[in-house]
Amino acid sequence: MNALLFLIAALAADQTVTIPAPLSIGEKLTITVQSDVPPEKPPTTPTSKAQIGVNLESAWESSRADYFADLYKLAQPTSGFGRTADGWPSGDFGFRVISNVDAGNAGVTVVHYPKDTGDYTFTAKGRGTVGASGAQVVSQVYDAATNTTAAIIRRADSKLNMDVGMSGITGPVRDIRIMRPGYAGRNVTFTDEFKLALAPFSVIRFMDWGVTNIDGSKWPQYPAVLGANGMLDWAERAPIGAPNWTHLFGPPIEVMVQLCNETNKTMWYNVSHLASPEFRTQLAAYLAANLKTPLIIEYSNEPWNYAPGFDQYGQIKAAALAHVAAGKLPKLDNPPGDPHYITQRYVLMQLIDLSTTFRAAGVKNCRFVFGSQIGQTSLYSDTLNWAARTYPNPVNTYIDMLAGAPYYGGNGTTTAAIVDAVQAGLNDKTNWKFKNDSELYMNKEPLMYSVAQAYGLEYVCYEGGLDISSDTNRQQTIGVNYDPRMKDITLAHTVNAFANGASIWMQFTMTGAYGKHHWGLTDDVKVLTNPRYMGVLEAANTDPRRYEVGIIGSGYWGVAPTTALLGPGTGLTGVYKWTEGQTAKTLTRVDKVPQFAYINYQSANPVPRKDVNDNSHKG
Known about the structure:
Structural class: alpha/beta
Strand content: 15-25%
Shape: globular
Radius of gyration: 26 Å
């Protein structure tokens, strides 16, 4: 019966059904739906194998991913200096090439610093004296025949930032290269260490690389880049031939495509809300011609999030309300909704427009994902319901996936206590400890999965991971990342996402320094034995749906069915093994897909049937 109700919720406004009186459980209902409009594409077929991917941290000189063999690609100027028309220094200059110091970590004894000591090779076309701080220039020479300055810069202490510059230059300096230890003379863009860390994963999300989020403090810099129309045109993106890639919109798209092609990873690209129609058309054409791997397209990032650092929300909201005020189609205020809900409808409208543009450009193997707030079921339900009423075809003829971001965390006064709290919270979610209607919504993932199924979409996680952000007890929170128990906890959280119906899990992030935030699976791309990286690695090297999720700390995943949960909504088979005394026992069980009693037509919010779900997961 739930499939029928899901179908009813997803009907377009011009489709009609007749519903008889309420049915009893088990009674069959048959309806026929007719539409004169053919679908634009076949409905999405969910992926048969679970996929695990990673978000990349911002492409800055402080990144712990060692993205590029040449440090100059992400170097940040430390002082003002003149530049040539093509962007190279025309006078004495200085750049910060490594940032490892976090003032907030002062006095914290558990901080790990990256293994970045060794000899760096500096070369440049031009003459001057090479200088450095946080490292020592041990040799330098000038070749007049080729007008080349070369130097060896030795770094002995990872606890320091590293700056490099030139003084006394006699003219413009071009073709600056600062190659990492072991990369002198090699013609490669990406480091081996970065590509090795990426190897287990199948999808790369470039949200931070593309600087999708708008930091309001940097907004005064945007008009000079965006030009007269206030939007980002294709020619205004980061140019591949620029001296370095610290553009306001991040590294060039060409570099992202190169990375995916070299590593055979699906490219997940967030199209900025500032991208003009011309940019979108050119982007689609470029990707159609050059990307050799699958593609996922998302509009902006978290356009429901009005926290500091997400100023795109306010800009998108203003555009949505202007759309309504101008009386443009499609109508975002039919049915009426508050500005926050109207904004989300505008976001989905933009995504549907992108799907039309990309299909017209002939982009192959491309899927479109609508990201929303996993904790606000009514928000994304309303948005999808609006689209189903507004567009002539079912929602899944335009987009393919509904995405949320399940994070987890815990509090405590010591590292051990925080890990205990993280583990206890995850166990509560794993065991579905819902004692009343309000606690039923503790675990939002099954609800998002179910709404996705209602519209024939896949449920995926665009982000997720550990969130114990704190500026007050860094000594304790940073230590959590190195606690051996975090391997099983991280594995369990990843497995839980698939148990709740996800087909893609995207860790936020693969790497990252630990301080106020703790996003990275490791704080050094050269150290892949961090417990959190190891946990996701174990899931990525297998199909995580093979696991039976049990109480963490039990010593094994196959546990007695009274405490075991493979997960709601998957319909997968779980084999549970445990011991009673000296006797080994086994139980094979198929998890039930949650069923729903009705759908609220105002919000399209499914409400679980208590007669089906109450404790039914426990054996």
